UniProtKB/TrEMBL annotation:
InterPro entries, sorted: Glycg_phsphrylas, Glyco_trans_35, Pyridoxal_P_attach_site
PROSITE patterns attached to this UniProt entry: PHOSPHORYLASE
Top-level division of the source organism's lineage: Bacteria
EC number: 2.4.1.1
Modified residues (N6-(pyridoxal phosphate)lysine): 673
Pfam families in alphabetical order: Phosphorylase (PF00343)
First-tier enzyme category under EC: transferase
Subcellular location(s) per record: Cytoplasm
Protein name in UniProt: Alpha-1,4 glucan phosphorylase
Lineage: Bacteria, Pseudomonadati, Pseudomonadota, Alphaproteobacteria, Hyphomicrobiales
Length: 820
């Protein structure tokens, strides 16, 4: 028998050949011996799994090579901590990035299987909600593409957020069962298991001449076990790891209780552990919901940090070198508890004193802020935090004392400034401010667009910025062009390659030569034909899912986002009502046929967001069934928005709705996806729209509405929304129709709260921006009636969007923040 490492050649598998015939043979082998099916009776799902296993083997070769290289060089690693990773389907992504699309397609054809058919069967991984999670997925792919050794850390949700269905136009939340039949992409890592504690008490020891040591004795313990998914970079140059944590009880069953007949009680600990990783963003309107969310965040942060320290020390590194070898990026405030958890591990488990540990901690972490909404900067009631994490509460107070004393002495901060930077919110009930904790505990704090970063300095972190003036910096978000152009829009990718060559596939900023083709009538015609084909695909999806016929020759006006009042789906719907009224009142006018398509999920406890979904569906029901409209306007809300749906909707869009209240959208990445795929943007000067305006040119984007400064001034001065509404006949009429029950004859008061909110305070400036938005939409109509002008503008959007690649963003993180 060969001893381990006795023959290195035997321990290194030979690289796999990837010709179609070899791939076909491997698919059959996996089908037969991995799944236990004969090809004659195999189902499409069997073929999907067998194909994934064949592809996976080639990924593993590169994955192990990447891991060995990282250990060999012992360079700096990046760890990306995020509560969400909205990775979508992986098969097509992996095959494309490996450069094997043609070979796999030919292999399956030889077996009588259609790649496109089985690819559609792969479930979307339910690991995120919206832009935050999709950004994390784009960043992971780009880190692998640009050659940065990285791990992503998150939670392996069994059900994720929820699967959205409609019942009489209302959102209904159902469990997402993406793991019901297993996940062939993941690998359980039992050796990467860590104990996580909650509750209990803190004891101290140490004499008068000895340093005091703190010993946390948790009342509850669970085990976090890692599940690894490979993340393939472009051309397979590097494969990184997404490690997701699953919770398991230490004692799965209390056997004595079970044998005594208490069958439910016997499984109590098991159920409690499994609850930790069952649902993304459990509703936090109740104390139990808040506790579960804090438990989830601490669970994945503690497991991740224990894993990071184990790997760091395993390679012979010292704790003092942690900032030189490790960069930990906090994706929003959800992982902010990592700051105090690392302090606990360094002080209590590894014996460092507080000052040593703090110096290591803040130099290791960096923090990305994604919101200016105070309610989205998480905070936790002090009693809850102290009961659940008693040792961490002690460290929060100790960190706070250190920082506040320094602010008093070195910066001469007054009481008001101290109150703003403190980790403890004192107005009302006392709460632990996680945004402030992430800021204090990081050497870098970045915004995600130029406007957002400047507003951070002026608003939510003004006093912390004064205390640490060198920490805030900007890293404008980006998207991976592999998924959001090459994979989701192969027709356009082929046309671009034919026009300017393939270099843009390796560097998307080399799309710029396409600009010259905007004035080429033959190219515009081909570009329009590809857009038409993408619209036909979406039309077929809408017909099959919803039974609604939409005309691909109409202008496809699309808004796909998480449903939130600041994103202003309500503004879009009210304008649809106004347009509906005008079409009926003025049938003699030459109206542009338009289909308004919306999709997105509302948080289960967000009443107004769910009302907006209901209003969209009620308005759609009335408009779509009114013969007097003559098919000139249709409204469609497509349920269960996810990555796979976005991959169909984005290439089909003619008009991209980016209409958030100025100063409230941190960046947006949907705006980038749409523009890259040849859509015209209608939007406010908010988030990355500002930078998109600079890159695509003001003649190739439609901007309207109040600026962030104007919004802030209107709020502080007290604007009069009632006067605004009464001075706008179209707006007043649309709101009157909603209030009168035109769209809700079964319940005339259903939307009274939404309408009253606009009359009374209009916090999100829906009424204030309505007339400007309506004018901008008629400007869009005018452009649409000249196809040459329309496609010239949209081609220039595609050509000029290269800067918004996540590869560029990641290189900036690596150079300026991670030093990786």
């Amino acid at each position: 028998m060969t001893k381990p490492n006795g023959n290195a050649d035997l321990l290194q598998p030979k690289p796999r050949i990837s010709s179609p015939d070899v791939l076909a043979a491997e698919i059959i082998e996996h089908l037969t011996y991995g799944i236990g099916k004969d090809a004659k009776v195999a189902t499409p799902h069997d073929w999907l799994t067998a194909t994934i296993l064949a592809i996976r083997g080639r990924i593993i070769d590169k994955w192990m090579e990447s891991t060995r290289e990282a250990y060999r060089t012992n360079g700096k690693r990046v760890y990306y901590l995020s509560l969400e990773f909205l990775i979508g389907r992986l098969m097509r992504d992996a095959v494309s990035n490996l450069g094997l699309m043609d070979e796999v397609r030919q292999a399956l054809v030889s077996l009588g299987v259609d790649l496109d058919v089985i690819a559609e069967l792969e479930p979307d991984a339910a690991l995120g909600n919206g832009g935050l999670g999709r950004l994390a997925a784009c960043f992971m792919e780009s880190m692998a593409t640009v050659g940065i050794p990285a791990y992503g850390y998150g939670i392996r949700y069994v059900h994720g957020l929820f699967r959205q269905q409609m019942a009489d136009g209302w959102q209904v939340e159902l469990p997402e069962t993406w793991l019901a039949h297993g996940n062939p992409w993941e690998f359980e890592r039992r050796e990467s298991s860590y104990e996580i504690g909650f509750g209990g008490a803190v004891e101290t020891n140490g004499g008068l001449d000895e340093p005091r040591r703190y010993i946390w004795k948790p009342a509850e313990r669970v085990i976090a076990t890692g599940y690894d998914t490979p993340v393939v970079g472009w051309r397979g140059a590097r494969v990184n790891t997404l490690r997701l944590w699953s919770a398991q009880p230490i004692d799965p069953i209390l056997l004595a209780a079970f044998n005594a007949g208490d069958h439910i009680g016997a499984l109590r600990e098991s159920n409690k552990a499994e609850t930790l990783t069952r649902v993304l963003y459990p509703a936090d309107a109740t104390p139990a919901g808040q506790e579960l969310r804090l438990r989830q965040e601490y669970f994945f942060c503690s497991a991740s940090l224990q894993d990071i320290l184990r790997r760091h020390l395993q390679q012979g590194n010292s704790l003092a070198s942690l900032p030189d070898k490790v960069a930990i990026q906090l994706n929003d405030t959800h992982p902010a508890v990592s700051v105090v958890e690392l302090m606990r591990l360094l002080c209590d488990m590894h014996g460092l004193d507080f000052d040593q540990a703090w110096d290591i901690t803040w130099r290791t972490f960096s923090y990305t802020n994604h919101t200016l909404l105070p309610e989205a900067l998480e905070s936790w009631p002090v009693p809850l935090f102290e009961r659940l994490l008693p040792r961490h509460m002690q460290l929060v107070y100790e960190i706070n004392a250190k920082v506040l004393l320094d602010a008093r002495r070195s910066r001469h901060f007054g009481d008001q400034e101290i109150a703003h930077i403190s980790l403890i919110e004192e107005s009302g009930s006392r709460r632990v401010r996680m945004g402030n904790l992430a800021f204090m505990g990081s050497h870098s704090v970045n915004g995600v667009s130029a406007l957002h970063t400047e507003l951070m300095k002026q608003t939510v972190f003004a006093d912390l910025h004064k205390l640490y003036p060198d920490r805030i910096n900007n890293k404008t978000n980006g998207i991976t062009p592999r998924r959001w152009l090459m994979q989701c829009n192969p027709g356009l990718t082929g046309l671009v390659t034919e026009a300017i060559g393939p270099d843009f596939k390796d560097d998307v900023e080399k799309l710029r030569p396409l600009d010259a083709f905007a004035d080429d009538p033959a190219f515009r015609e081909k570009f329009a034909a590809i857009k038409r084909a993408n619209k036909e695909r979406l039309s077929n999806l809408v017909l099959s899912r919803m039974g609604v016929r939409i005309d691909p020759s109409a202008l496809f006006d699309i808004q796909i986002k998480r449903i939130h009042e600041y994103k202003r789906q309500l503004l879009n719907i009210i304008e649809a009502i106004s347009l509906y009224d005008q079409i009926r009142s003025h049938p003699e006018r030459d109206w542009v046929p338009r289909v308004k398509l919306l999709a997105g999920k509302a948080a289960p406890s967000y009443h107004n967001a769910k009302l907006i979904i209901k209003l969209a569906n009620d308005v759609a029901r009335v408009i779509n069934n009114d013969p007097s409209v003559r098919g000139l306007l249709k409204v469609v809300f497509i349920p269960n928005y996810n990555v796979s749906l976005a991959e169909i909707m984005v290439p089909a869009a003619d008009l991209s709705e980016q209409i958030s209240t100025a100063g409230m959208e941190a960046s947006g990445t949907g705006n980038m996806k749409f523009a890259l795929n040849g859509a015209l943007t209608i939007g406010t000067l908010d988030g990355a729209n500002v930078e998109m305006l600079e890159h695509v040119g003001e003649e190739n984007i439609v901007i309207f509405g109040m600026t962030a400064d104007e919004v802030a001034a209107a709020r502080s001065d007290g604007h009069n929304p009632r006067a605004i509404i009464e001075s706008s006949p179209e707006l007043a009429q649309a709101l009157s129709a909603i209030s009168a029950g035109v769209f809700s004859p079964d319940d005339r008061d259903r939307f009274s709260g939404l309408v009253d909110g606009l009359y009374q305070h209009d916090w999100f400036m829906v009424a204030a921006d309505f007339d400007a938005y309506a004018r901008a939409q008629r400007q869009v109509d005018a452009i649409w009636t000249d196809p040459s002008a329309w496609y010239a503008k949209t081609i220039r959007n595609t050509a000029r969007m290269g800067w918004f690649s996540s590869d560029r963003t990641i290189r900036q993180y690596a150079a300026d923040i991670w030093r990786a």
